[in-house]
Amino acid sequence: MSAVARNNVVVDGRPDGRPMIFAHGFGCDQNMWRHVWPAFAGDHRVVLFDHVGAGGSDASAYDRERYGSLHGYADDVLEICRELDLHDVVFVGHSVSAMVGVLAAAAEPERFARLVLVGPSPRYIDDAGYTGGFSREDVEGLLAALDSNYLGWSSQMAPAIMGNGDRPDLGEELTNSFCRADPEIAAQFARVTFLSDNRADLSRVRTPSLVLQCSDDIIAPEPVGAYVARHLPESTLVHLEATGHCPNLSAPEETVAAIRAFLAA
Amino acid sequence: MTDDAGLLEETAEDLFEDAPCGYLTTRLDGTIVRVNRTFETWTGLRRVELLGRRRFQDLLAPGGRIYHETHYAPLLRMQGSVREIALELVRADGSRLAALVNSTLVTDASGRPRVIKTTVFDATDRRGYEQELLRARRREQEIAQHLQRSLLSGDLPATDGLEVAVAYRPAVAGIEVGGDWYDAFWLDDGESVGFVVGDVVGRGLEAAATMGQLRSALRALASTGLQPGPLLDALDGYARRHGVGQMTTLAYAELRLRTRRLRLACAGHPPPVLVAPGARPELLGEGRSLPLDAHAVRSARAEATLTLPAGAGVLLYTDGLIERRGRSLSDGLDRLLAEVASQDDQAPAALAPAVVHALHDPGHADDVCLLAVRIR
After folding, report:
1. Sign of the torsion formed by the C-alpha atoms of A245, A229, A48 and A40
2. Does domain A3-123+198-264 correspond to CATH entry 3.30.390.50?
3. A221 touches B: beta carbon within 8 Å
4. Can you give the three-state secondary structure of A222-265, one letter per residue?
5. Per-residue pLDDT tens over the stretch A7-33
6. S-S: A55 plus which of A5, A50, A228, B59, CB 3.0-4.6 Å?
7. Residues B345 and B225 both lie in one domain
8. Are B311 and B346 within one domain?
9. Who has greater pLDDT, B2 or A16?
10. Across the interface, do B66 and A194 touch by the CB < 8 Å criterion?
11. Is the same domain home to B230 and B351?
12. Which of A162-166, B309-313, B331-335 is the least confident region?
């Protein structure tokens, strides 16, 4: 199976423009970028995709070993780049996908021109001398919340979601479909996301990087964004007025402007 | 009439304050600007402590806060509303309120989001019931896994003249156990071994139980001296009489070590592979009949007999090893033969795991079982 099919890759924008990949974080799918990517379509070749297990990806391609660490997700990004023959890439990663971009750029630095890290965190769990903001119990609490909310994933819905059911009556967009995920995959992705530690990978990145830090972001608090910017060899830290963890949805104009300014510099 | 009129005089304000659900209005960042009395009563949090001071997500337990940021808030932005999300609110006294939460994004005339309106329903009993259901489901999975493991463990026969090895890989994506089983045992003559690989329809506890019944029945029948063809006939009769394992497929073989004589019968199961030194692996396509209890009309089941060359082996396996989405079965069989031929080490203990590993398709949600036998 090609990575393009597996990851539900959507290509838009200017065919001969500089490639710009948008990677969504834990929870939802490529729709997270719906208010951001159009702003770059005029002068970029825009590439959107879903992580395996999310959105329109092929959930049957999920492999516990491969996706047992963020490296598997970074490999997917690199495979997409190879299949589409992308070079001089601007990688835009939200939340956990910021670290996916870090791993991809560390592995194949020649392929990436810029990294844009939206709400990055290299480690969510507190550690000696490091405040990530969460404890292991909090991650258990998240797993319990996931357990209580199999969004759009009753067995009745599953055939339509898996793409092998012929159920036009379900309509185009199922309720909560942007965040639907196979419960088993969502639980493992949650563990991989919130229990990973990529602090040591930051210094391996040679690509110029932008760190976008939101206000009042409990997932990636300000000290964490500052930590990322401090440990990336070539980075720019920009504070957004946007609150919460998803400026791509809550403040797309401000997000677009910050990315534009960084790419123009 | 007078009484009714009195009831209808209830003001919109009363309706809001004492509605049988909690009401909150928040700014887009979650800051609470209005709550009703029901919400205060349920949570023990007073409006003076809430209004302008706390965000809705601040009232959630930490795990739920992550869920709010990664699912709830983005969904609300993308859909304009979110329904039926189960969250736990932390009350003033630290206890938890299991709630079902709905929110709507209220926009102004130009379509710009302005505020979020949220209703909170007490779902304590419902959550308790859901958790019981989840526990029951997990318990069933554990029992099925335990049953399957107990059926699939046990010593395989081995002597100087015989090597037997099994590679078993459960389906990756599934949470339920599958219906593949294997068995290998000495027959009563003390110089023959019987071995079987089968595939029961279905998954979970029921499949594991069926597997256990067929495995016991087959062992019992084998101990009576029935040869493979008649044995499958008898097993077919058992399946029909007791309504057990309809459409089960299996390959059963008996090997007499002294004579290297192999008797084989296949009930709707993929053909075993003969692996002989210095020859290309080949399919054993003889001795075939329909799956168990597959047809109203019964006829004697076919059986094949052959003498294995010295040092030869046989592979029995389930269809998970050869089936691929979008590929034909003969394609899968060709790949199996090529993979077996390409292995340097043909000893069962090396061959079985190597072939399963090489042909493993993470995208295929089926169990895989391969039993390899070799004689001196």
Report:
1. positive
2. no
3. no
4. HHHHHHHHHHCCCEEEEEEEEECCCHHHHCHHHHHHHHHHHHHC
5. 999 999 999 999 999 999 999 999 999
6. A50
7. yes
8. yes
9. A16
10. yes
11. yes
12. A162-166
Domain ranges, residue B181: 142-375
Nearest to A77 by CA among A92, A61, A58: A92
The pLDDT of residue B31: 96
Residues of A in contact with B175 (CB under 8 A): 184
- B339 in the same domain as B228: yes
User: Tokens standing for A107?
Assistant: 């592995």
Mean pLDDT of B46-71: 94
Looking at the structure of chain B, the number of domains it has is: 2
B79 and B154 in a single domain? The answer is no
Mapped onto helix, strand or coil, the DSSP state of residue A160 is: helix
Residues B115 and B147 in one domain: no
- Tell me the average pLDDT across A49-73: 91
Calculate helix-pair angle for B228-242, B204-222, nearest 10 degrees. 140
Q: Is residue B258 part of a domain?
A: yes
Query: Residue A123's beta-bridge partner residues?
Result: A197
Answer whether residue B13 is part of any domain: yes
Q: Please give the residue of chain A at the shortest CA–CA distance from B127.
A: A148
- Considering the domain architecture, whether residues B208 and B105 belong to the same structural domain is answered as no
Whether A139 contacts chain B with CB within 8 A? yes
Q: Please calculate the CA angle B312-B314-B317 and round it to the nearest 5 degrees.
A: 160
Strands (DSSP E) found in B214-258: 249-256
* CATH of residue B217: 3.60.40.10
The strand pairing partners of B288, in sequence order, are B266
* Residue from the list A140, A144, A218 with its beta carbon closest to the beta carbon of B69: A218
Beta strands in chain B (DSSP E): 22-27, 32-35, 81-90, 96-107, 113-122, 162-169, 180-186, 192-199, 249-256, 261-267, 273-275, 282-283, 288-289, 304-307, 313-317, 368-375
Inter-helix orientation angle A136-147/A183-195, to 10°? 160
Determine, yes or no, domain membership for B79. yes
Count of residues for chain B? Answer: 376
Q: Is residue B215 part of a domain?
A: yes
Of the residues A26, A118, A149, the best mutation for testing chain B's interface (the one with the most B CB atoms within 10 Å of its CB) is A149
Q: Is the domain of B102 the same as that of B148?
A: no
Q: Which residues of A are catalytic?
A: 95, 217, 245
Nearest CA in chain A to B132: A148
